[in-house]
Write a structure and sequence with these properties.
The chain is of the alpha/beta class. It is 41% helix and 12% strand. Strand 5 and strand 6 form a beta hairpin.
Length: 303
């Protein structure tokens, strides 16, 4: 399988946001439809699923992962939460459905053949530091899927992931607050296509109940500390991106209006969010192509 990248000067970044990725997964679809293949892709939390689906070049899976799949009876609810599997049934969602003949079969061969560099971010509960995984860490499909699960593990709502003797939770607790900007900068990139899941006017507020997290995560105080202080890091990263945008070094795909929350389960609402995201993404494609230095296709002649 010969897969090539045609964008080598820009990093593609996918923010997390739970089921708000029903909107931003439309950017995966639009980029793949347009034949835009970036050679450095990073994602955190739900953005790691967008990353994995983009690298497999699977527009169908990108959509279904955050739309129709929510109707799966094993997707998770309070019953799975009470038995310790999480409000989102993470082991099933991430480690089972991507296997052959399952609900969301993953094109492992395409992922391995894709020459792009991948970075998936999670948070080490013991050290309090971010960890970034790439293809060198994922020789088998399970290695990728368990890391996407770890990156997506929302504290309290989903059980932490034990991997190679360490405990991991949502990568959004890392230094960028949920947007994988610093890992791309550390790799030498200075131009960015960032796919965000909050509108331009959004400002994250401090946690209202810090004492709850300190008690709940008394065995992992680094998680509590990162949760309580995340709002500051998240807002700072957004401001950095807005400044990069003003400098002409970043193109930001920012939802015109985010119609769903991170925990949305209603398929009709998720479908509407995806369609709204797809409409916006397709409208912005000429500007994205221009930013990436790709030619804009000539309009098709009217019959």
């Amino acid at each position: 399988m010969d897969l090539r990248s045609n964008v080598t000067s820009t990093a593609l970044l996918f923010e997390g946001g739970g089921m708000r990725a029903s909107y931003t997964s439309a950017m995966v679809v639009a980029l793949l439809e347009a034949g835009i293949h970036v050679d450095f892709v990073a994602g955190i939390s739900a953005g790691s699923s967008n990353t994995a689906n983009y690298l497999a070049r699977d527009a169908w899976r990108a959509r279904h992962s955050f739309v129709d799949f929510a109707a799966d009876p094993r997707f998770g609810d309070w019953r799975t939460f009470l038995r310790g599997d999480g409000l989102f049934n993470a082991r099933y969602i991430y480690e089972e459905t991507g296997l052959p003949d399952q609900a969301l079969p993953y094109d492992w061969d395409a992922y391995r053949a894709n020459p792009a560099t991948v970075r998936i971010g999670a948070f080490d509960a013991e050290s309090g530091e971010a960890v970034w995984w790439g293809k060198e860490d994922t020789p088998e499909i399970h290695d990728l899927m368990v890391r996407v699960r770890a990156s997506s593990t929302m504290p309290v709502l989903m059980p932490p992931v034990r991997l190679d003797g360490r405990t991991y939770v949502d990568g959004a607790l890392g230094p960028d607050g949920g947007i994988p900007l610093s890992v791309a900068e550390d790799a030498g990139h200075d131009r960015f296509l960032a796919v965000l899941t909050r509108d331009r006017g959004y400002v994250k507020a401090p946690q209202r109940f810090p004492g709850f997290y300190q008690r709940y995560f008394r065995r992992h105080p680094a998680i509590a500390e990162a949760l309580v202080t995340r709002w500051r890091r998240y807002n700072e990263t957004r401001e950095r991106l807005f400044e990069l945008e003003r400098q002409g070094r970043a193109y930001l795909f920012v939802p015109e209006r985010m119609p769903v929350s991170n925990g949305e389960r209603n398929v009709a609402r998720l479908r509407a969010a995806h369609e709204a995201g797809l409409d916006q993404a397709r409208r912005e494609l000429p500007a994205i192509r221009d930013f990436l230095g790709l030619p804009v296709p000539a309009p098709r002649p009217t019959p």
